[in-house]
Design brief:
By secondary structure, the protein is α+β, with helices and mostly antiparallel strands. About 40% of the residues lie in helices and about 20% in strands. The chain is globular, with a radius of gyration of 17 Å.
Amino acid sequence: MISETICNELIALGAELVARGLVLGSGGNLSFREDGRMWITRSGALLHQLSPHDFLSLAIDQPYQRPASSPRPSTETPMHLAAYRASAQTQVIVHCHPSYAIAWAMQERPLPACTPDFALYLGAEVPVLPFHLPGAAIGEAITPYLRQHPALLLGNHGILVTAESVAKVRLRTFHIEQTAHICLLAAAAGQVRPLQPDEYARIITAYRK
């Protein structure tokens, strides 16, 4: 049975993602893990109009074949399945299309930690995956990245964010977009100065105590 609490939290987050302009139309998808299964938004679902009936269930450890008839899980289902298989800690996933993050990924550089909050929630950087078509190929490509990082910039596409809770995946998503905006502004002004290794280490040591 679907978890009502997590489902309602993701419904609220979907509406917030649309309100903040991080996804348009039926783009983007949300999912969560429960009892060895993944619940993911259906293909064509509008994130600002979700209901519990828009989440479809699949076994995480079984091969996936896209159904021939509707309702079908999101076309990004292979990517979500790969993310859950890559890390047992992942319980919730957001995939959306934030403009600043996409623009930064087009520079083909990882998004660096520039603030203490980013460092604490996302680590020293969020790596960039070169462009892949949605589907099985991108699922295979993300696995090595997500074994080391909780989030990933998808070249010319969007972002994939994982976490142990809806609250944490929400913060990670918005910190990525905010930091991408900061970096683009800094680049336009002449210099991007991320946190230096010693500064990053001091932040992690101080706050994680």
